[in-house]
Amino acid sequence: MTIRESSAIWKGNLKEGNGTMRLGSGAYEGSYTYASRFEDGPGTNPEELIGAALSGCFSMYLALILSKEGHTPTSISTTAKVHLGEGPKITLIELSTVGDVPGCDQKTFVEFAEKAKKGCPVSQALSAVDRKLEARLI
C-alpha cells in the first residue's frame, strides 16, 4: 500500500491570517490566505490543489483504460475547475480533457473518459461532489 503525506500550517485568524501548504515529497510548497482562497489574491488554495490532483489522476487513469483497449495515447491534457460556493462548500468540478489518441474515434474516447471520471482514485474520493466532463480528441 502506498501512503502519501502533505501538510499545512495556518497562523492567525481567518481573514488576516496566512498559511503554507507543502507536499510531502517537497516538490511543492506554497502560501495561501483568505484572499487567495475566497478572492483573487496571490497564492494557492486547497481547491486548486484538489483540481491538480484530480487532473493528474484522471489523465493517468484514462491513459490506462485507453492503452488496455489498444489505443495508446500520445498525450492527454486535463483541466479541472473546482467551484467553491456558499458554506463554503465545493459545489461542482468541471473536467475538460483533450486527447491525442491515434486510431481512437470521438465516441470511444468519450466513453473511456466517462469510465475514468468514475474510476480514478481521486475522482472516487470526490464522488460526493457533482462533476461534469467535456472530452474531445485533437
Fold and architecture overview:
This protein is an alpha+beta fold. It is built from four helices and six strands, in the order E-E-E-H-H-E-E-H-H-E. The strands form two sheets. The protein has a three-stranded antiparallel β-sheet with strand order 1-2-3. A three-stranded mixed β-sheet has the order 4-5-6, with helices on one face. Strand 2 and strand 3 (29-33) form a beta hairpin. Helix 2 (46-68) packs across helix 3 (106-119). The longest helix is centred in the middle third of the chain and has 23 residues, at 46-68. The chain is elongated. It starts with 5 loop residues before the first strand and ends with a strand.
Output the keywords.
138 residues; alpha+beta; GMP Synthetase, Chain A, domain 3; three-stranded antiparallel beta sheet; 35% strand; elongated
Break the fold down into its secondary structure elements and pairings.
Blueprint: E1 6-11, E2 18-23, E3 29-33, H1 34-38, H2 46-68, E4 75-85, E5 89-100, H3 106-119, H4 121-125, E6 130-137
Parallel strand pairs: 5-6
Antiparallel strand pairs: 1-2, 2-3, 4-5
Q: What class, by secondary structure content?
A: alpha+beta
- Ranges where pLDDT stays below 50 over 5 or more residues in a row are none
- Which homologous superfamily in CATH is the superfamily of the largest domain? K homology (KH) domain
Spell out the helices and strands N to C: EEEHHEEHHE
CATH architecture designation of the largest domain: 2-Layer Sandwich
Rg from Cα:
17 Å
- Count the domains: 2
Distance between the termini: 36 Å
Helix share of residues? 25-40%
Query: Biggest β-sheet: count, sense, barrel?
Result: 3 strands, antiparallel
Give the strand line-up of the largest sheet. 1-2-3
Outline type: elongated
CATH top level assignment of the largest domain: Alpha Beta
Number of alpha- plus pi-helical segments: 4
Number of strands: 6
Beta-strand content bin: 25-35%
Mean pLDDT: 97
Predict the CATH topology of the largest domain: GMP Synthetase, Chain A, domain 3
